[in-house]
Amino acid sequence: MSTMIPQITDRFSMETFFNKVYTMRKKQPTLKALVVLSDFNASQLEDMISHRKKLSKKYHIKMTPVDRDLYLLNFQRIIRRELVKGYALLDAKFKGSWILLTDEKSYFVVHVLERLFSGLYPDVSRLYVNFSQIRVLLRKIEKIYNGHAIVTFFVTKRKPRELRPEESLERKGTFLLWEIEGEDELLAQIRKYRVTVDKLDFEVKDEQGAVLLQAHITRKGLWKLRFGNFSIFYEKVLSEAVQIGLGLKRFYSNRERIIKNGEVKLSPFRINYDFDFGKEQLQELANKISKSYSCSIIHSGNPYFVANICDYQDGSSFGVTALGKAVTITPISRATPQAAWRLANVIQELLGDGEIINVRSE
Description:
9 helices, about 35% strand
């Protein structure tokens, strides 16, 4: 089935078409919605790409306005000498965010859409959410639909909380589960393992058991609509995701080290866990974080990990300390919210999802 997106001529036709398609019970491509955050005007996208040598060589994009804050994007990218083409809509209706809508195949979404917008960092930030933040979203979605949200499928990356000496540091585990009330199983796994929730499917039912919504969410802000009223999903669910994302961006903002009246003021934040880090876990953290950042490791191993790291893509710098059951991240001279948010996600993908709290010093 070819995409119908090029036939959309304005916002009204977009809503009418998607409402018709996704309230029908028949096999059809899922509607993918990639939510990203940016303070730039969406009309600048082509210029943003052209000023990045690597991206401009890989991607060719034609951008056509179709309505206020709504654009049709025609993508082309050569992957392994094969031309991959596809269409998406870019909606900048919600201030501070862009939403990319497409019914193209997942290959296009992963290798073209997501790769491109990840490559626009730090001008464009992915919307990172961990499991506790996804649960907050699910509770809000229940209120929107006045129903009950049920996790039916999930993918996690999990590791033992403690590694035995004979176990490899590189031991990895990906766990997939289709199950009614999968949220309970997820919580049980989190009590036993170090778990990073990668993606999950959920549905919302009313009191009579009728399905109101079938959808999918990933920790990097990619949504899929399988069944349900598009207008409600878009205006209520995705707008709620945007608001949570903007709230997280504010949480990570204004944390650079400052000197006031001769006194150094720091604004750290912390990722709390309910298990102690072992030597092997701290060594794993040291090995892997140094592959993603310019990293000066001061101490690695029992009883703690200390490093100064720099995000070489935007120049932000941080002190990172792992001790006991917590990782403390202290922004230093330059620390953009995009970089702090991204670092928190990288650490959780290594150590598991935790509780992120503010430890701002007075």
